[in-house]
From TrEMBL:
InterPro entries: MeTrfase_RsmB-F_NOP2_cat, MeTrfase_RsmB-F_NOP2_dom, Pre-PUA_NSUN2, PUA_NSUN2, RCMT, RCMT_NCL1, SAM-dependent_MTases_sf. Keywords: Methyltransferase, Nucleus, RNA-binding, S-adenosyl-L-methionine, Transferase, tRNA processing, tRNA-binding. Its EC number is 2.1.1.203. SUPFAM superfamilies: S-adenosyl-L-methionine-dependent methyltransferases. This is tRNA (cytosine(34)-C(5))-methyltransferase. PANTHER family: NCL1 YEAST -RELATED NOL1/NOP2/FMU SUN DOMAIN-CONTAINING (PTHR22808), RNA CYTOSINE-C(5)-METHYLTRANSFERASE NSUN2-RELATED (PTHR22808:SF1). S-adenosyl-L-methionine binds at residues 71-77, 102, 129, 155. It comes from Antrostomus carolinensis (Chuck-will's-widow). It is found in: Nucleus; Secreted, Extracellular exosome. GO terms for biological process: tRNA methylation. Signal peptide: none annotated. It is an enzyme of class 2 (transferase).
Amino acid sequence: FPASFPRYPEELAWHTNLSRKILRKSPELEKFHQFLVSETECGNISRQEAVSMIPPLLLDVNPHHKILDMCAAPGSKTAQLIEMLHADMNVPFPKGFVIANDVDNKRCYLLVHQAKRLNSPCIMVVNHDASSIPNLQIDVDGRKEILFYDRILCDVPCSGDGTMRKNIDVWKKWTTQNSLQLHGLQLRIATRGVEQLAEGGRMVYSTCSLNPIENEAVIASLLEKSQGALELADVSSELPGLKRMPGITKWKVMLKDGQWFEEWKDVPSNRQTQIRPTMFPVKDEEKLKAMNLERCLRILPHHQNTGGFFVAVLLKKSPMPWNKRQPKVHQKLPQRTGDTEVTAANSDNGSECIAEEPTLAENEESKKMQELQNSDTEQSKKEGVCGPPPSKKMKLFGFKEDPFVFLPEDDPLFLPIQKFYALDPSFPKMNLLTRTQEGKKRQLYMVSKELRNVLLNNSEKMKVINTGIKVWSRNSDGEQFGCAFRLAQEGIYTLYPFIHARIINVCIEDVKILLTQENPFLSKFSSETQKKVKDMAMGSIVLKYNPDPEKPDDLQCPIVLCGWQGKTSLRAFVPKNERLHYLRMMGVEVFKAKRKEEESESKMEEEVQHRLAQTEEGMDVEDKEHDLVTKMEAEIGEELSHSPVESGSMEVENKIEDLDQSSKNANNHVSQESKDADTSDVKD
């Protein structure tokens, strides 16, 4: 049985000792497995290795924090960070945000999928090399400043030897060479992270490796070159009950051929490209003691029956020594996107800038050059365009993304939306964006004002893969009712506080009807709901369920659904897994419907196999194909008319399309098998 994970706050983490294979294959656990898959898909559950939950917890995130996840894919830790930002569900737009980065373009889309489940307007996915991720700029009271992050998660690529329990490949492929090759990259990523960390900020460095070359050696080197700007935080009192070991202070370096080295001076010259000085422990005892390497966390697999993990929490007390410099020219320069102007403008604050201070003559020359280079950029910024023109052609380093275009303040598109839904005057319409620069806008997305600031000021230096939450979708039928855009379920909890019209309060029985029937007639709803609908024009609506404290047996949490009111019917536009989630909460059994669907599919497969056997005996293929397809149509038709609906508004059409495709596949399958039977006597 699942049990709560004692190290995780507020019993928000649960674990089970069942293996993945048992969970998937065991008939007794089929219902539990479907529950996990369905709830994971709609964002209510995130499944991950227990020990990998620790780094985000030690970041100590608050809703106002600006967070950078440097090596974020596949995104389980990013999901934790987003949840922490939205700790107060009554605040639709927290002041903080998460920028999740990964160097692998394809893995970025996996990261997008993970983040999208949580429906947050405060997440942005970018695609950069973490060791050289660019400095971003933001507008603060009319002047440009470099963005420094309050929290940084630095979960670097590693050899993964801590995963030896679940990853068989580690036993086959592990060599000491792995850590020697990764050490330099890990140190560069960690160094770039602390450069972008705000003073007083916290960075967590972690690996799923137990090799000191990837762990304590990186931290020691970072602390040594920081010259007191960084310190290891003492987190021994955090996460009580977590079994751990302190970091180590002595280790040796080993080559693939088995040679051991205790000091850098012992390494022969022909090996000094493989082994670097930063891989060795610090010899100066005073320096070593001041580093407090024992404050690092080493978690071994047998401690909590998990994988192995290393975690170090770094605090930044002052700018890094290579960033400290006194500016020569103390003046505010005009607000521009050029790096030279931003560098000089921020030097008054003592902000960290690596570039050297240019002379006055160089300043004049660079101003002229950047005026020419940035004219197009400035024009795009005025129009609210962030990113390149639309193109989905595959490039050397992945797809070129569509631009992010913010709606202008006077855009005629927004006025009918505002009027139709009676949006509150406080609604932040400047945060609405689309992904198209030309033609009809099909989807409207929303970001927080802080992310809008980041997007508008960094469109040329940042490769954004995805951001924003979908709040409205174009519906051509809606134009005749006064608004061409219907509400999207993904963004309804963000939008709802600002909507003052087209809201219908429904009882729990009405909610069950909406979620189990595709397009129910109004006569099926309660009399109160029918009265409210009668006085309302057709089009997109909000369906709100408020719990009744006097009925403790009913569902005791509010539900907000997007719907559509027709002439004689009322329907909900809710994705399949979200429907199943709400029905489970109301005590409606959803597993039977799923099992019936699977039984229907297995019957189809049996029919195909039976048909193949008959074909080999010389029966007429075309007549039997026709019988098979007719039977499949009848079964799916019966399922559509009798089983509870578990899908969105377009599910019926999709099932019909699937039926057509299944029929074609069956025909092709039967025909091919018939040909094979004619040409070969050896057939399994």
